Amino acid sequence: MDRIIKKIAVLGSGTMGTQIACHFANIGAEVLLLDRVPPEFTEEDKNNGLKEDSTSFRSKFAINNLKKAVKTQPSPLFTSDFASRIKPGNFEDDLDKIAACDWVLEAIIEKPEPKRKLYEEVEKYRKNGTLITSNTSGIAISKLSEGRSEDFQKHFCGTHFFNPPRYLQLLEIIPGTKTSEDVIQFLQSFAEIHLGKTAITCKDTPAFIGNRIGVYAIMLTIQLMQKMNLSIEQVDELTGKAVGRPKTATFRTADLVGLDVLADVSHGLYENLKNDEERAVFKLPDFMRKMLENGWIGDKVNQGFYKKEKEGGDTKLYTLDPAKMEYRPKENPSYLIVEEQKKQESLEDQFKSMEAGKVEETNFLKKIYLKVTGSDNDKAVMFFKEFYYRLFAYCSNRVPEITEEIYKIDEAIKAGFGWEAGPFEIWDSLGLEETTKKMNMAGYKPAGWVAEMIQKGHSSFYSHHNGRKNYYHLQTEEKLPVPLARRLIILENFREDNTIWQNAGCNVIDVGDGVLVVEFTSRMNTINMEVMEGINKAIDLAENDPRFKAVVIGNDTDDFSLGADLGMIGKNAVVRNKSTIEDALHEFQDLMLRIRYSYIPVIAAPKGKTLGGGCELCLYTDRVQAAAETYMGLVEIGVGLIPAGGGTTEMVRRASAEMVDEAPDSPHLQSYLMNISTAKVSTSAEEAFQVKYLRRGVDRVSMNKKRVLTDAKHLALELAENYRPPVKTKSINALGKNALSFYLSGIANMHTGNYMTDYDREIVEKLAYTMCGGSLSGKNTVEEEYMMRLERESFLELVTNMKTIERMGSMLLKGKPKRN
């Protein structure tokens, strides 16, 4: 457990190996990326300026694959600069360098013999005690290390990263028969804290846990599609956001992963699971075999279940008709039951709504609706029931075959396939006993241990108590703490017993040790009047109740906040109700100042999208504890506005603190102006430091998004020990009209170069006017309140402009800004 990982060797520079190497670089490790020497020197190599005996030729595979990865979107690197931490090489010239490595990870072709042959060479140079792991999605780990030394086998295991490694959280750790328990414990801890993974130990069974269940779910979905005569679009509508899964649902996900990869795993399962009761599900249907023969394997060739074609300046989407093996224009099916689900406040209620199949409708409306959309609501409910009843039964029958702990199945599916809830959690949400009865009646009988569990008085697989999540353990027949959650603050585990105040927009939750968490519950975690009331309430409690001493603002959802309540702003803008908007702005700005100057520390814990007002809130907290995957930005320009919740003021204040001269073209202010005017959103927390939404040496980063609230609590307690509120800012440097003239000239040039529309120019000029201090004739020092007043005035001048209203309407109705 005292290991330090500084240098890592990745053997194999294919897509997976190179992306794993990139993620190791993200955490600051020095990475050696090795691959084969090319089999022959070609004319193309010569034309590319390579020499046959040169390092650039002999390491060509690793060099070129790394270059390709750096250009990949979304990027496997937090910032392209991190590529310098990776040194490409080859097996013949550089394998001896693994002697200096702390971890050697093999990621070559998925065949046992080449792996074993490489391990023979590795053992010549690897120093004793070095971790050695194989990235495999299904090869039996116990067979790979046969014949190796005792030290090699003690430190050897499987580490199955899911693709892409930066973004998918699951890491399966598969011990060999002789793997040291210390090695497994270290890898779990290192993966969770430093790699940001949900690390799960697995039995050495075919496809382990994630792919065994996840691929079953995909192949079962395809089987039901054919059985019920559903289209690919209809299935994706029923297996996406409507049931707490990624918007890519089933078939867009399959295209992203690649049909070739899916087929390989499915075929392997079919061949190796002779006694599996659902073995037939893994057999590829004829239309998928034809897709493979045609090379229609997904996004890698721009053609799979969906197909993209350029027509003029537009990209048209087409969908495969499996019966005809032809593509047709993509349809947009809609189901009444899915619309009904959108009204539900929780994922649990969404599942209950789908199973019940009840919707508010008249017969006339239903007839018209079905005629227009071609969507059969009853068939959707039938699909839901058969899919989940069979999935529940299948998962129950995999215990204890693939794991003794049910939580591992749920966590693997959530972390590896992006589901919001795992199979046993969904089963709980529908009601364990009642759903089990329905499954038996439908002929999908779960494993015998489920009935025994119910008979012994257990009404659910999971329970939540005093901040802990407990799961039913098959061997002890009692509820035990989920190890993955035991060390972390997960609000679901605190919400029922520890919520001390709530309203329609947020909960204030006591997470122990005197720390309060403000959890947003508004739609998309937008900041509305209820949210502002909740934050003020939490600060009141922490300042005045001796039980509390700090506040953390954060949540357990994928995104921190998508900004201020645009619906409220747009509604009042349309009717020219400026006074209501101005009052809301005042309240938001006052809240930002209260957060900054309160008598207790306030910490923001953002992850995912942290936009507009959500970003502004973070700018005013004492510290930010951000997830590595935090996408932060002041994006108000996109809806025809400027940041007016203190965001513009704070950017000027930060620029002011950096100024060392009085030049009107101050590069400090200019960079902040550019960030706002281009609606710059960081692609990671690391980039948020680069664009100065986060402060180096002040704000911190958690690699694992599940650890953000826990780390934020520790940071809050650290600050609370000797906390003193900051001194109020009284001297912000405003550069005045000379600087404004300089910026207006640059804005005009961008407009002339067609980088801005006419209205973009108008908005950015208003932003520059505000950031330069308004009508000040020259450089002067001003207070925060002065800058905030300018923010409000500029915002209010823009908000009722018809072009801004059009932009807000486009964002609210279509989810994307309008360039007018």
TrEMBL record:
Residues of the 3-hydroxyacyl-CoA dehydrogenase NAD binding domain: 7-205
Listed pathway(s): Lipid metabolism; fatty acid beta-oxidation
Keyword Transmembrane: no
Domain of life: Bacteria
Catalysed reactions, semicolon-separated: a (3S)-3-hydroxyacyl-CoA + NAD(+) = a 3-oxoacyl-CoA + NADH + H(+)
KW tRNA-binding (keyword) present: no
InterPro entries listed in its UniProt record: 3-OHacyl-CoA_DH_NAD-bd, 3HC_DH_C, 6-PGluconate_DH-like_C_sf, ClpP/crotonase-like_dom_sf, Enoyl-CoA_hydra/iso, NAD(P)-bd_dom_sf
Domain 3-hydroxyacyl-CoA dehydrogenase C-terminal: 208-307
Keywords: Fatty acid metabolism, Lipid degradation, Lipid metabolism, NAD, Oxidoreductase
Matches recorded under Pfam families: 3HCDH (PF00725), 3HCDH_N (PF02737), ECH_1 (PF00378)
Protein known as: 3-hydroxyacyl-CoA dehydrogenase
Organism listed in the record: Marivirga lumbricoides
